[in-house]
Design brief:
Maltoporin, Chain A; 22-stranded antiparallel beta barrel; 40 strands
């Protein structure tokens, strides 16, 4: 059956994006960049940007604490930054044969996966008990698309925890997942990898860097993949992508980098197994309730970024980064439900029918964003300052066509023997055509005052002027909401020794409702989500700086969170508040020259502190927040017995969690065991073998719950082996 085309014409984008002259930042930033560029010839002799060799800095695994994030927003190394930060570097991504961002995030304790929350698709995770759907960034700028992010162009992943609006603006309520992209370096690189797997995986990637002259280099990353999911064989992943970039002025005070990311997907999605009587239905893992000839998730992602840097001298640097992003999607899917009259407890399984609804949608997101940043160091008397100031402008537009579920018009299937080859004979019907636009002006300043060699005081303030507009061409509903959002940040840092740092921090963040309104609209405007974060932590460097030990106690208070209305899951009409108190510990680095370790533990006590279930009229205050595991643990360790041979192993433990706000549906905890070994044949060839889920554990990686009849859980892959040939020349 042919894939249904988008129900909209891409030319309709103009009614939300408008023309460049209507984008408030384009002209301003063009003038700013041109003015700064004209000063290049007048730069001082000491105004030379240091060479940023991303590959070298990212792959070293000696001590994460001694690194600096590749973001001008952070002037200090991680050890002296008053915030919990996890870095997943390129070497760890390669050792674990990771191909997706979500799989990389399993190396961060305290993260769990979501499934289809409020109509969302693509990457969707919980961090410290809060959804971070609006917290994905790429090289410091927002990456708002609903797509599955591949790892082929990733140098590393930074997980910056806690409210972060003072650095990143609106949306970073629980923290930020920042992808550091591969960028040109002054070292020639030519490599590719061919990978096959027991899940019918066929994947090829390439990474090429060429130095044109001492100040100019180009880089190109490539990827193509086709794969199934072990024991969920009907589900299918097909994607390809490429990412070229070029840098000028790498040997001088002024640098310009242009980069482009293109990625496309055409998948058969997996919406899992229905939840029955409070837990996943007791059927085999390979039972598939979607429609193989109908279900598709298609995305087309294009991200163009221009980054300009100028060092006036060794203490002052100006950066300006502009981004245009276009994220098209077409989600033509069916998901399992139990119908309007779910079976009573004790009903024979062979008598139960599974219905299919259609949470289908198609549309696009468009982003224009520009961010100017000035970092400088100066003294006032005996006190030293590290000052970061900046201005950001953005316009984010979304347009969606949502389709009617038509649950009563689709023939049900057997719970024990579902038919994924069933033909869908009905035509899709448009239910709503919502659109929204958010214009943001973002001003921020952060000053780190070095009072003494042992004491630092950080103070920052972020102001967002966010204007959101929403409309639905089907219903005629429309409204505009203006929000002035002020997010303060303060921290005290104590450094008794060069190897130790202790801190206490306070911060707030806001998340406007633009994404929620388009994915699952409300009938009225929604107050922005607000989060307040308190954190007490410490960071230690051990074994002469080879190992980092970090710990933190924290509390998040979040208000005006949104979940789907149980009476109408297409609406974001139920708000609630939650409080999360937690503890986390991490240990990363080298125990010996040949033995590396990355491990972390997080305990979360995430409770609903206000909210009423409109379906039952009962208060849910005191219940556990859904899809948050109280305890999570991760361990990945490798050992290199010889120069050519490496072995590794990892364990990932997730405690039990609830799927529903009323805590009536529960997912069991689980532990996964992964292994790897690699052998360097010579300087050109390396072969690597990975085995994931060694014990073939049956587990649930995510769940969606709207009501007892509309809920499902997605099983994780079974035992899967991968063989990779890495070639460099």
């Amino acid at each position: 059956m042919p894939i249904r085309s988008y129900p909209h014409n891409k030319s309709r984008k103009t009614h939300l994006v408008n023309t460049p002259s209507q984008f408030i930042g384009a002209t301003v930033f063009g003038i700013a960049a041109s003015s700064t560029w004209s000063q290049v010839a007048k730069a001082d002799n000491d105004s030379v940007l240091p060479e940023v060799n991303v590959e070298a800095s990212s792959t070293t695994n000696d001590n994460n604490n001694l690194r600096k994030l590749n973001l001008d927003l952070y002037s200090a190394p991680i050890q002296d930054t008053p915030q919990a930060i996890d870095v997943i570097d390129k070497e760890q991504l390669q050792n674990q044969s990771i191909t997706r961002l979500q799989d990389a995030l399993k190396n961060v304790a305290g993260i769990t996966m979501n499934s289809g929350e409020g109509g969302a698709h693509g990457d969707n995770v919980n961090l410290r008990g809060l959804v971070v759907q609006n917290g994905f960034f790429m090289d410091g700028l927002r990456d708002p698309g609903n797509y599955t992010r591949d790892s082929f162009n990733l140098e590393s992943v930074d997980v910056i925890k806690g409210s972060s609006s003072v650095m990143f603006g609106y949306g970073s309520t629980a923290g930020v997942v920042n992808q550091e992209s591969k960028m040109p370096t002054q070292t020639t690189l030519r490599s590719f990898a061919v990978k096959g797997g027991t899940n019918a995986l066929a994947r090829i990637t390439g990474d090429f860097n060429e130095v044109i002259n001492p100040g100019t280099a180009v880089r190109l990353a490539l990827m193509a993949e086709r794969s199934n999911i072990a024991d969920r064989d009907i589900a299918l992943n097909r994607r390809y992508g490429f990412a070229p970039s070029i840098s000028f002025g790498m040997d001088g005070p002024t640098r310009l980098t242009l980069s482009y990311l293109h990625q496309e997907e055409n998948n058969i999605p997996d919406y899992g197994i229905p939840i029955l009587w409070g837990s996943v239905a007791p059927v085999a893992r390979n039972k598939f309730y979607g429609l193989a000839n109908y279900d598709r998730t298609q995305t087309d992602t294009n991200v163009l970024t221009a980054s300009f840097e100028h060092a006036f001298n060794s203490k002052t640097k100006f950066t300006n980064t502009f981004r245009y992003g276009s994220y098209d999607f077409n989600y033509q899917v069916t998901s399992p439900t139990l119908g309007d009259n779910p079976p009573s407890i004790g009903t024979a399984l062979d008598q139960i029918l599974v219905y299919r609804d259609q949470p289908s949608s198609a549309g696009y997101t468009t982003l224009f964003a520009d961010r100017m940043n000035l970092t400088t160091q100066f003294n006032t008397g005996q006190f030293k300052h590290d000052l970061v100031t900046g201005l950001g402008l953005s316009r984010e537009s979304m347009s969606t066509t949502r389709y009617a579920n038509q649950i009563d018009q689709i023939t049900p299937t057997s719970l024990l023997n579902p038919n994924p080859q069933q033909v869908l004979s009905i035509q899709s019907q448009i239910a709503a055509q919502p659109g929204s636009r958010g214009d943001d002006i973002n001003l921020y300043t952060v000053d780190t005052l070095h009072v003494t060699e042992q004491w630092d005081v950080m103070a920052g303030l972020n102001f967002d002027r966010f204007i959101s507009k929403f409309y639905d061409s089907q219903s005629g509903n429309s409204f505009t909401e203006n929000n002035s959002l002020l997010s303060p940040r303060a921290a005290l840092v104590f450094k008794p020794f060069d190897t130790q740092s202790y801190y206490f921090s306070y911060g707030t963040s806001y998340n406007p409702a633009i994404q929620y309104l388009t994915l699952a609209p409300s009938t009225t405007s929604l107050t922005p989500q607000k989060t307040t974060n308190l954190e007490l932590g410490g960071k230690l460097s051990l074994l002469n700086g080879k190992l980092s030990l970090n710990g933190a106690l924290f509390q998040l208070q979040a208000d005006n969170l949104r979940v789907a209305d149980p009476n109408d899951p297409t609406l974001q009409a139920v708000t609630f508040g939650e409080r999360v108190r937690g503890l986390e510990l991490t240990l990363n680095g080298r125990i010996t020259q040949n033995w590396e370790i990355n491990t972390g533990y997080t305990h979360l006590n995430a409770l609903i502190v206000n909210g009423i279930n409109t379906d039952t009229g009962l208060s849910e205050v005191g219940n556990k927040v859904p899809n948050v595991a109280s305890d999570t643990y991760n361990l990945w360790t490798t050992y290199t017995p010889t120069d050519s041979w490496k072995v590794g192993s990892g364990v990932y433990v997730y405690g039990p969690r609830y799927a529903s706000p009323d805590n009536s549906a529960r997912m069991a905890g689980y532990a996964l065991w992964n292994m790897m070994t690699s052998y360097q044949i010579d300087k050109h060839f390396n072969v690597q073998l990975n085995l994931d889920n060694v014990t073939n554990k049956y587990y649930l990686q995510s769940a969606y719950y709207s009501s007892s009849s509309e809920s499902h859980a997605v099983p994780g892959p079974g035992r899967t082996g991968y063989l990779t040939l890495n070639v460099s020349f």
